[in-house]
TrEMBL record:
It comes from Leptotrombidium deliense. It is found in: Membrane. Keywords: Glycosyltransferase, Membrane, Transferase, Transmembrane, Transmembrane helix. The keyword Glycosyltransferase applies. This is Glycosyltransferase family 92 protein. GO terms for cellular component: cytoplasm; membrane. Belongs to the glycosyltransferase 92 family. It is a single-pass membrane protein. Its EC number is 2.4.1.-. It holds the Pfam family Glyco_transf_92. It is an enzyme of class 2 (transferase).
Length: 213
C-alpha cells in the first residue's frame, strides 16, 4: 500500500555473497551509498537509519522545526554536510510501560509507545550514531558517520537535549545482560501517541478494505 501510494520504494538487494564472511552485513555500505546517490538532488535532507531506529526531537515537534533549530543554533552555517545524532538503546527485554499496558494504546503493538525505559548513557558520536545528510555535500557515507565529505563541508554533532536516536532492539551482544545497565524512563515518544495511533488505525482500516484474504 505504501509502495502504491508512492511513499515507499523497495529495492531488490539479493547478493550472491556470504554475509559476514565475504562481505559485511549484506553489503550494508553499498546499500547506504546507493541510497545516498539515488536521493541526491531529489531531496534536501536524507535520514540514514535502520527500521528499528527513530531520530526523535526532544524540543521540537517535527523534523522541519528540528532542522530550523539546528541551522539557527549554528548561525545557518553553510558548511554543514550532515547532522549526527547520538544513540540510546531502548532494550525490548525491559518491561512495557505500565501506563501503556493499562491504556487503549495497548491494542497496538508499537515499540515506541510500549518501551519507555532506555539505557542512561548514550553512545558518543561515531559510535552507533545515525545521520541526517545533505546528499550533494557527501561523497561517501558510512553506517555511523560520514567517511568523506565534498570539500569545505563537515559534520555537525547534535546535542542530545535537542534530539537523539531512539533504538529499539534486543541486547546487542545476545543474552539478557543488557537489562542490568543503568537506565532512565524516557516518554518523549508519547508526545506523538495520539497522531501515531490515529494514523495506524487509518492504515488498518485501509488494509481491511483491500485485503482479499
Amino acid at each position: 500500500m505504501y509502495v502504491r501510494a508512492g511513499i515507499v520504494t523497495v529495492l531488490p538487494w539479493t547478493l550472491n555473497i556470504t554475509s559476514q564472511k565475504e562481505i559485511r552485513t549484506e553489503g550494508l555500505f553499498a546499500a547506504l551509498n546507493d541510497c545516498l546517490y539515488r536521493t541526491m538532488y531529489s531531496f534536501k535532507y536524507v535520514l540514514m537509519i535502520d527500521l528499528d531506529e527513530y531520530i526523535i526531537p526532544h524540543i521540537d515537534s517535527n523534523y522541519f522545526q528540528l532542522i530550523s533549530r539546528i541551522n539557527s543554533v549554528n548561525n545557518n552555517d553553510l558548511r554543514g554536510g550532515a547532522y549526527s545524532f547520538q544513540n540510546a538503546f531502548f532494550y525490548l527485554l525491559w518491561p512495557d510501560d505500565s501506563n501503556f499496558t493499562q491504556s487503549s494504546m495497548s491494542s497496538f503493538d508499537l515499540s515506541t509507545l510500549r518501551k519507555t525505559r532506555r539505557k542512561q548513557k548514550l553512545h558518543n558520536h561515531k559510535q552507533r550514531s545515525k545521520l541526517i545528510v545533505v546528499p550533494e555535500r557527501v561523497v561517501e557515507v558510512g553506517n555511523h558517520f560520514v567517511w568523506e565529505f565534498v570539500p569545505r563541508y563537515q559534520m555537525v554533532n547534535i546535542a542530545p537535549r535537542v534530539a537523539f536516536l531512539h533504538h529499539y532492539r534486543i541486547c546487542e551482544y545476545g543474552g539478557n545482560e543488557c537489562v542490568k545497565s543503568s537506565s532512565v524512563v524516557d516518554k518523549r515518544a508519547h508526545f506523538w501517541s495520539h497522531s501515531l495511533i490515529e494514523t495506524v488505525e487509518k492504515m488498518y482500516k485501509s488494509y481491511s478494505q483491500t485485503c482479499t484474504i
